[in-house]
Write a structure and sequence with these properties.
Elements (H helix, E strand, L loop, with lengths): L1 H9 L1 H43 L2 H8 L8 E7 L4 E7 L10 E3 L10 E7 L19 E6 L2 E7 L4 E3 L14 E9 L6 E15 L2
Parallel strand pairs: 2-3, 4-8
Antiparallel strand pairs: 1-2, 1-5, 3-4, 5-6, 6-9, 7-9, 8-9
Helix pairs in contact: 1-2
């Protein structure tokens, strides 16, 4: 340590380099701590905008015609056990998922026969799926749309698969199911955690 101190005293460039390194590390630490806060704030603002859109007659008409655009509000997902209540947008692009959760466009619309699939964040942008690993068979998941609502029941414990396993969001018209997907473990995209639920209560028309 004494040798290092003597070296720094006699080499001005080394002191400057160390100072720059320290500043860089501080900036990086602040960025890491502030990024989740920023994404959550952004998602909150998006949810406010989507709430207004979700209640509009224009969106209801687009939903009935199957013309909801990527990034627009599609459905509200409620998971009572996890205290989740968030609007889901159409699409799973990076920009769409900044709303917190998005509907896979190639899958069925909520409450329809077939597979409905929704992706959501676990650590940023409101982290609506942060605790999906706590879901268990029998837990309820409610989807509300501009024209009605329905309830799904978790059929099996959450399971892990790879990002390349597209079979988990493949459509199956022989039954009515809901699939939730998210990254696993938290903060990593190495794997996917999957929740599978079955329609338990059919469509109830919106008031």
């Amino acid at each position: 340590m004494d040798a290092l101190v003597r070296y720094l005293r006699t080499h001005r460039w080394a002191r400057r380099a160390l100072s720059l390194l320290t500043v860089g590390l501080v900036v990086a630490a602040v960025g890491m701590l502030g990024y989740p806060f920023y994404t959550n704030l952004y998602q909150s603002r998006q949810q406010s905008r989507l709430s207004r859109q979700f209640a509009s007659p224009k969106l209801e008409q687009a939903y009935r015609e199957g013309k909801v655009e990527v990034g627009d509000a599609l459905t509200r997902i409620k998971i009572p056990k996890l205290d989740v209540d968030v609007l889901v947008v159409e699409g799973t692009t990076a920009s769409a998922l900044r709303a917190g959760a998005g509907h896979y466009v190639h899958t069925r619309l909520p409450c329809e026969t077939g597979t409905v699939a929704i992706a959501g964040h676990r650590t940023t942008y409101g982290k609506p799926f942060a605790h999906v690993d706590r879901l268990a068979p029998g837990d309820s998941i409610i989807l509300e749309t501009p024209i009605g609502r329905c309830t799904y029941e978790v059929e099996r414990p959450p399971f892990i698969t790879t990002p390349k396993d597209t079979s988990v969001v493949a459509n199956d018209d022989s039954k009515s199911t809901l699939t939730l997907t998210s990254c696993h473990p938290k903060g990593s995209a190495k794997q996917r955690i999957i929740v599978r639920a079955t329609l338990s209560k059919g469509v109830e028309e919106a008031a």
